[in-house]
Structure formats: C-alpha cells, structure tokens
Amino acid sequence: MKRVGGLLGIWSLCALLAPACQWSSDSSSGLTSLLRVQGGQAMRGSIAGPADSIAATATPFPRERTIYPGETSKSLNGVVRPDVNAVALGVAGDDAYWLVPALTADPTDPHSFKFTTSFSISPALATSPLLQPNPDGTATLPLSLRAVDSAGNFGSATVQPLIMDPQGVAGTLVVSLDWDAPVDLDLHLQVPAENAAGFVIVWAGARSADPHPNWDGGPDGVLDFDSNENCQIDARDRENVVWTGQPPAGRYVVRVDAFSLCGQGSAAWHALAYTPQATLGEASGVLTDPATREAPTEGAGITAFEFNYP
Length: 310
Known about the structure:
CATH class of the largest domain: Mainly Beta
Mean pLDDT: 82
Oligomer: single chain
Helix content: under 10%
C-alpha cells in the first residue's frame, strides 16, 4: 500500500475521506464537539460506523485514563498497524471526530506507525448524554480510535474508556492554568471586588477572593493548590481558582507568573476560563528564563487574557 508522507499526505487523506465515508472536513465542527485535538483536523459526522475492508487497527497508550470537564492537554499516543497513514479519534454520537497523522515509523515493527497528540475536553462533559454511567457511580466517556488508510478506508474501532473524575475540577466558574514541564508556575487571577481598588488578586500568597484577611474564610474563588511550590515537584502541573456559588460580576484578568523554571529551559502553558455552559477565554504560550526575573509579588507575570462574567 502506498503511503502519503508529511503534511501534504494528511491533507490529501482528509480530501479522500469525504467521498469514501460521506463525511467532510469542517474546522468549525470541532468547536462544538466534546474533544478538541491538537494537530488534528475536525471532520463532520460520528466516528461510529462499520469497518471497511482493511485489517488495520489503532492501539492507544494514554498516560492515565482519568478525565474531568474542562481538562486541557491530555496526552495520547499509540500505534496504527499495518501500513496506514492516520488515526481517527472521537466519541460515538458526537458531532465531529478528529483525524491525526501517523507518520513516524515504529522501530519495533516496520509495518506500524506511531501517532502522538493531546486533546482538550469540553466543560460540557459533566452533562453530556454521551457519558456512560457505571455501577460504582462513576461515568465513562468511550473514546474510539480507528486506523485510516490512504484510500480513506476505516479499520474497526478500538474503544478506550476514559473515566470522569467525580472530584474533578467543576464549578460555576473555573479558571485554570496548566503546563508541560516540572517547573513552578503560578496563576494570578484578578477578581472584581467591592473594595477601594475594585478588585482582589487570587494567587499562592492570597488563595481566596474573600476580602477578609483569612484566605480560607470564604467558600468561593479559592485557589485549590500551589503546584510544584518552590520546585518541590508534585507532577500536578496545574492550578485552579474555583467558584461553586455565584461569582462576582465584572472584568477578570488572568496572569501567568514563572516563579522558577526549576532547571528547565522553558515551559509551555495553557490558561482557560469556563463555566458549565461555555468557555469564556483561553490562551497559550511559552515562558523562558527571563520571565523568572520579576519579583514574585501579587499580580506578577504576564497577562494571558481577560474576560467578563457573566
């Protein structure tokens, strides 16, 4: 079977898929799907369907299988075999699936190719009818993966159950920061407040939007964790400010501070603000050593984005 290579190959493959499967490429489709795949191309339609006449399969190797609403940068890699170009991934019943190239040869098998990607999960996951309830009270999102050849033929589906964490990050408003390296980054969130300044800053030094001196005096607008504090690496690589009641109305400012890169050269970060109904804003970037030279005071760092609530 002739393989197509590089980015040209994957775009050619996407073009082939439309007549083969009566599905078509549409970048807007992925905006409303439960998954958003980095480096993937959104394709209209459900990933479910009968297998075509190929024996190729896709095998995923997720780092860990727990997910939560609004999660970002969830790693996924695996192999497709034999002699295929891409992997399709999505959830049966969703309004789109994603096509990801598999163009790196697997050194252990000359007929297999590796894929590597990451995906984000919609904040609407918690109320999605595509979640499958389990007897123990948890719920599973059945992620389907299918090998795709250069003619647009689909192999049979491999289903990877992803377990929604009932203790995951959910609230009436969540602002989160995550990053990809063992470094100490800090989320600083400017929150509207009825005080002389008109705002308060929630960060590791003042972990609640409650204006009283005791940072944990209020139940809402609380920073959940100071991840990798002082380079004591905990591997969470994520911080969240969460409301469970009514957040204050007004303008919010999301800032990212590099307290220390802990010996690393750089760190890529992603910040996100969401409610159960919508994403309010998001941004990504990379911080390098010069970013650590600012004093780690309230409101330090770079502005990632601003948003209004409600």
